[in-house]
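Worked example

This section walks through a single chain of length 256. The input is the sequence exactly as stored; nothing has been trimmed or padded.
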Amino acid sequence: MERPESLAGRRLEDITVTELKRLNVERLRQSASQQGRFEDSGEDLAWGSRAWLVVDPEDGRIPPVTAEAKSRTAARLLARQRGPADPWTEFDLFSRCITRGLPSSMIPAIYGNSYEIVQAPGSVAIVYEMIHDTRVIPLDERPRVGPSVRSYLGDSRGHFDGDALVIETANFKEAASFLGSSPDLVLTERFTPMGKDHLEWRVTLHDLATWERPWTFAMTLTRTTERPLEFGCHEGNYFIRNALTGSRATGNSVRQ
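Given that input, the structure is written out below as tokens.
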């Protein structure tokens, strides 16, 4: 997401095609190193159209976190380390097949990099392949829900600014934290057409309880004829059951 230290002082628009390919190969090699299966074919990689994602601040780095955020993160880590893998609520939302949250659901992971954006009268829906979350974003200027009503994907409202779709989302649950964000997080997304087959997805994160200033990252989305695949997360998924069974078998389980 951030500008590599080796490219300090460089701008996104200054990165050559050759440099971008080298970066992509290095990143692919790192992610595949444990499997020992990486092989560079020498062909241009179709993905990785940006050398880094953070576009504001200009240094391409996520702003420093606040003292409050450091304290909050330390408390979360301590809570996770307090005992064995039990009960099931100790596991993160992704492991429990609940959600990847926002903006994580739009950020490429090991697979599941497809989305489907559907526009209907008065609303836009976005379907994510991983976990199969679906957001329905009203466009009719209805008032926001109250601050006590929170969800993993927040409360979204959208409008068009020329050709660009702008979505503002707030009211996140604390459990849906992104990079240590607080429930105060407000996301502003901007989907801007870049020709027939591309959109720029630009996201500004405003959360002064976590970062010293707002910051923005952007990705290029490419149109495809493929629809998101079914995501049967619990089918054949024995991870949590096995982890709980193993923890309880040791006799160290903490029941609640």
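What to look for: The chain has a mean pLDDT of 86.
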